[in-house]
Write a structure and sequence with these properties.
The structure is a single chain. 55% of the residues lie in helices and 12% in strands. With 184 residues, the chain is α/β, with parallel strands linked by helices. It has two domains: 2-116, Resolvase, N-terminal catalytic domain (Rossmann fold); 144-183, Arc Repressor Mutant, subunit A (Orthogonal Bundle). The protein has a five-stranded mixed sheet with strand order 2-1-3-4-5, sandwiched between helices. β3, α3 and β4 (88-91) form a beta-alpha-beta unit. The radius of gyration is 22 Å and the shape is elongated. The model has no long low-confidence stretch (mean pLDDT 87).
């Protein structure tokens, strides 16, 4: 059985999410596990469900390597779990199929290259931020709660509690408490 897993990092990535489903279904996947969650910070519940679901002889299918694994170590762990269940892995955009020796070799090579590229990109990003800070051009992300402090105060004065304010304004409760404490 071909079992698919698709993921995007953010809810607004609708086109990529739909394209993954189209590609997986056209490849003949019978069951699709889907989630829209960052692979960096969040637990990937649907990936776990997919791995639990697959049985010996099944193949887990993903459209791209970055939709499945965070790093080479993460990839190796996922592949080891699949191999322990005698389940293959297929990555469509690279035509990699771990049910073959060549596919397993290519997966390890591509995974290492992907991690290398990611580390280089992060190093460049850190260098760019350091340079921008040195030139006093880097401001960082604008604090969301501070921009909404007038609304926080007006809701607080209207009798709303911090939890209600946080939910209404899309903020964390701690941010609401911080704004209220700083002005008091």
């Amino acid at each position: 059985m071909l079992v698919a897993y698709r993921r995007t990092s953010r809810l607004e990535q609708v086109a990529g999410y739909e394209a993954q489903l189209r590609d997986l279904q056209s490849h003949g996947c019978e069951k699709v596990f889907s989630e829209q969650v960052s692979s960096i910070n969040a637990h990937r519940t649907e990936l776990e469900r997919a791995i639990e679901f697959v049985r010996e002889g099944d193949i887990l299918v993903v459209t791209r390597l970055d939709r499945l694994a965070r790093s080479v170590a993460d990839l190796c762990q996922i592949v080891a779990r699949l191999e322990a269940k005698k389940v293959g892995l297929k990555i469509l955009d690279m035509a990699i199929d771990t049910t073959t020796p060549t596919g397993r070799l290519l997966l390890n090579l591509v995974g290492s290259i992907a991690q290398f590229e990611r580390e280089i990109m992060l190093a460049r990003q850190r260098e760019g931020i350091a340079k921008a800070k040195a030139e006093r051009k880097f401001k960082g992300r604008a604090p969301t709660a501070r921009r909404k402090s007038d609304a926080i105060w007006s809701m607080h004065l209207a009798g709303k509690n911090p939890t209600e304010i946080a939910v209404a304004l899309g903020l964390g409760r701690s941010s609401v408490y911080r704004i209220l404490a700083n002005a008091a």
